[in-house]
Amino acid sequence: MKKFSLLLAVFFTASLLHAQDSLTIRKIYDEALVNGKAYESLHYLCKNIGGRLSGSANAQKAVEWSKKLMESYGFDKVYLQEVMVPHWVRGEKETAFIIDGKTRIPVPIAALGMTVSTPKEGITANVVEVRSLKELETLGESVIKGKIVFFNRPFDQRFIETGHAYGMAGDQRFMGPAAAAKYGAVGVIVRSLTGSTDDYPHTGATLSGPGTQQIPAAAISTNAADKLSNMLRLRKLPLVKFYFKQSCQLLPDVLSYNVIGELTGTENPNKFISVGGHLDSWDLAEGAHDDGTGVMQSAEVLRIFKAIGYRPKNSVRAVFFMNEENGHKGGTKYAELAAQNKEQHIAAIETDEGGFTPRGFSFDGVSKDFIKSINDKYKAILEPYEVDKLTIGGSGTDIEPMKEKLPGVVLIGYRPDSQRYFDIHHTPNDVFENVNKRELELGAAGMAAFIYLIDQHGL
């Protein structure tokens, strides 16, 4: 009889907790969807500040405004975290032509981040088209020297999750220019990393190690890439050349900041759950989806908690990281200082895949047993809100340094629907008008709900 009574007590306690969780999550969604502030804040960030490349005046304006925004929400702590960041400047608009005999065909290009300028008169050379770094290596210096290398591997459209296609195609932008320089190339053009066929070149960072020879590198729009590829295939090589001119500069590093807001835990003030995105953006547009939506959603999580009167057991932080796009210095600094301060981090969520319809969360470096346990605990309560896809996967560039510096932290990526993201990623189309208000609010609510569950019941 005593055993039955104990089981009955456990059952009723569990039912009561589930009911309380359901009620709180409903309050979270009601607040986000009826009184949400993320959309109007994003409008200000995009329209009054705009593109926010690390080291720029706009990046500093964004830092100052973000701190005031968090203070206006009444968070327990709001502060800046110093970090030195690169200062790369694009310069005047790039120019490019396909040269077909005596005909010059203008094509859209955008210099890759951290690349160097061409000579003032630009570069004109024959073109060698390759589809991979391996093909470049096979051709070698005898074919590559003195040429412009054209990396033209498209997205693999078979992937349902478009981030996988981006990852598979990305090495030609990240490492292609440095690899081509080793074989004597005078410049590089890279097919934009998108599944769309359009006239918008997609910028993004390229990498070069210390002592690596640097050559000018630019992204070419997918329509232009197809045109150039067809011309190279149909005409004799000497007749088709490429010209481009860009005037980028890499200036000395400058002081910038991560912006951090915190609700201090009532039971465990030195245990932390972080949610964040990156405040910096590329300079071609307003950085709306990449990653204005992410930082505004992160602040919204804490604002929602304040609005519904929820005091977390553990400290919850919203982190606006600086310099994700071309250096990752903000995420590295955050992890270093957390380790120095002996903070215990339970979980960190990054939102950097746009403000589209929420689907769920992915967990970095965990076991299948962990995923089964998470689904057993939380899938049913998240399912009514359609944010219940809990899978093994990546987390995010800004929180990745925490893996080494903060043992025990669980790194989590917020996963919205991916189908439209790489249509606008790193392009002039990344503007406020391409963000849907309700999708943005649903994402903020989904993250707040999941952080509430982690805070209450752990992982």
UniProtKB/TrEMBL annotation:
Protein name: Carboxypeptidase Q
Any single GO CC term annotated in Swiss-Prot or TrEMBL for this entry: extracellular region
Endoplasmic reticulum listed as a keyword: yes
Subunit structure: Homodimer. The monomeric form is inactive while the homodimer is active.
Pfam family, one: Peptidase_M28
Matches recorded under PANTHER family: CARBOXYPEPTIDASE Q, PROTEASE FAMILY M28 PLASMA GLUTAMATE CARBOXYPEPTIDASE-RELATED
Peptidase M28 domain span: 258-448
GO molecular function: carboxypeptidase activity; metal ion binding; metallodipeptidase activity
InterPro entries: CPQ, Peptidase_M28
Signal peptide (residue range): 1-19
TM helices/strands, residue ranges: none
Keyword terms, alphabetized: Carboxypeptidase, Endoplasmic reticulum, Glycoprotein, Golgi apparatus, Hydrolase, Lysosome, Metal-binding, Metalloprotease, Protease, Secreted, Signal, Zinc, Zymogen
Compartment annotation: Endoplasmic reticulum; Golgi apparatus; Lysosome; Secreted
Single Gene Ontology BP annotation: proteolysis
Taxonomic superkingdom: Bacteria
